[in-house]
Amino acid sequence: MNGSSPEPPRTSAQDTQSEAYADRLRNLSGARWKQVLDVQRPYRWNLRRQGLGRTLDVGCGIGRNLLNLSADSVGVDHNAESIAECRARGLVAYTSEEWQSTPEVAVPESFDGMLLAHVIEHVMPEHWEELVSAYLPYLRPGGTVMMICPQEKGYTTDSTHVHFTDGTQLADLATRVGLVIEKNYSFPFPRFAGRFFPYNEFCLVARKPA
Questions:
Q1: What is the model's pLDDT at position 31?
Q2: CA distance 65 to 69
Q3: DSSP state of 176
Q4: Which of 45, 109, 189, 193 is most buried (most C-beta within 10 Å)?
């Protein structure tokens, strides 16, 4: 990344736990034009082609990605209203507190994949390793981790983003928590598009050593 990081107007990251934030996610996903144009189609394809298998979706929000993962996948989020929305959609999801107190679900090495989509940029860097490491024990050896973060334009669209996170930083994080990087790329367009197209993403795919 050249120059300074793009900076959106700031609010507390705790806002992602609020009912208002869950409402924002509902409103964004329910926009009529997005449904008519099926703008999520390439992103669904990008997710499904990874072959994540049974996936732990960390920071699942209202279930946009969870809907497109294998039916036995599970979501976790610290926003209780978002989890209620997931359940209303027929998805299996737990608040962070419920996850920690539900040992019959939080079984070590029971997931084939782990997804952190649009999560890391909501967390200050000093907490990244703690966040990822807290959930890695539930991923089987040889399992796949996928991390997704917005590029410059997308970063400015959400006031709860606290740290612009590019592919290099994602790779560094993956290495620090012991993952083996397999792919690190820009999607759906080349990297330069992220400066003006809000839906361009950094995507990193890594593997937990067997």
A1: 61
A2: 7
A3: H
A4: 193
The pTM for the full model equals 0.88
**Per-run averaged pLDDT (10 residues), the chain, 210 residues:** 42 68 72 67 96 98 96 97 96 96 95 98 97 98 99 96 98 99 98 98 98
Residue type (1 letter), 89: R
* DSSP β-bridge partners for residue 147: 116, 204
Sign, Cα dihedral of 42, 188, 56, 100: negative
Distance CA 141, CA 130 (A): 19
Please, are residues 65 and 46 in contact by the beta-carbon 8 Å criterion?
no
Chain centroid to CA 10? 20
Q: CA torsion sign, 90 to 187 to 42 to 208?
A: negative
With beta carbons less than 8 A apart as the criterion, state whether 158 and 8 touch: yes
Element (H, E) at 76: strand 74-77
Residue 140 belongs to what H/E stretch?
strand 139-150
Asked if 61 contacts 82 with a C-beta cutoff of 8 angstroms, the reply is yes
Question: Which residue matches tokens 């806002």?
Answer: 15
